[in-house]
Design goal:
Belongs to the TRAFAC class TrmE-Era-EngA-EngB-Septin-like GTPase superfamily. EngB GTPase family. Strand 3 and strand 4 form a beta hairpin. Helix content is 32%, strand content 20%. The protein starts with 6 loop residues before the first strand and ends with a helix. The mean pLDDT is 89. The protein has a single domain, classed as P-loop containing nucleotide triphosphate hydrolases (Rossmann fold, 3-Layer(aba) Sandwich). The protein is globular and about 45 Å long. It has 6 helices and 7 strands. The protein is an alpha/beta fold. The structure holds guanosine-5'-diphosphate.
């Protein structure tokens, strides 16, 4: 899965800049610091692959990574950046909306949620956007190693409750730790099973 080379292809700032929709793609969304780069790196087995998405200037682009004979992996950098000027936020939201609603080959959006925090108000922003698009989304809990196993059930309950309001949500919640390699194979298998 994701046999080398996995490469950064391009950062897209407008729908006109999208690469050809010639293969399926999955995308990863999450607020900054949720562990998205670490997860993409763990999935692909490439250290620092996703660092490009976190550099200034790339944070308002939709970043495409190619995999050998596999789907595009698409990184949606940190949503909900409250500090950005209003026109910048508006432009980003418009691009996001257009992408999520209008990309025929987009098969699933993985919404990353920090295991320590659960679904927060800032996450609801992307969830409601996803409700209005035609794509299934699935929650991936990150940094599972930072919470106790005894707290897993309460976390799953909180996330399930939050997802109940969202018809586009996939019911399976995936618990991961990029640091410990937890859930990475599961996530790979889910991606490999999409067509
Ligand atoms: P991004 O901003 O969403 O791309 O987040 P990063 O992948 O850069 O991670 C943010 C911080 O969380 C970094 O300090 C990572 O080392 C840490 N982090 C990411 N994943 C994990 C994990 O699975 N376990 C732990 N303990 N820390 C993690």
């Amino acid at each position: 899965m994701f046999a080398a080379p996995v490469e950064f292809l391009k950062g897209v700032v407008a729908m006109s800049g999208m690469p050809p929709a010639d293969r399926i793609e999955v995308c990863f969304a999450g607020r900054s610091n949720v562990g998205k780069s670490s997860l993409i790196n763990a999935l692909t087995g490439r250290k620092n692959l996703a660092r490009a998405s976190n550099t200034p200037g790339r944070t308002q682009e939709i970043n495409f990574f190619t995999t050998q004979d596999g789907p595009y992996l698409v990184d949606l950098p940190g949503y909900g950046f409250a500090q950005a000027p209003v026109p910048v936020v508006k432009k980003w939201q418009e691009l996001l909306r257009a992408y999520l609603a209008g990309r025929p080959t987009l098969r699933r959006v993985f919404v990353l949620i920090d295991s320590r925090h659960g679904v927060k108000a800032v996450d609801e922003e992307i969830l409601s956007l996803l409700d209005r698009s035609a794509v299934t989304f699935q929650v991936v809990l990150t940094k599972a190693d930072k919470i106790n196993a005894k707290d897993h059930e309460a976390l799953f309950q909180q996330v399930s409750n939050a997802l109940a309001k969202h018809p586009a949500a996939h019911p399976e919640i995936i618990l991961t730790s990029s640091d410990k390699g937890v859930g990475i194979e599961t996530l790979r298998a889910i991606i490999a099973g999409l067509d």
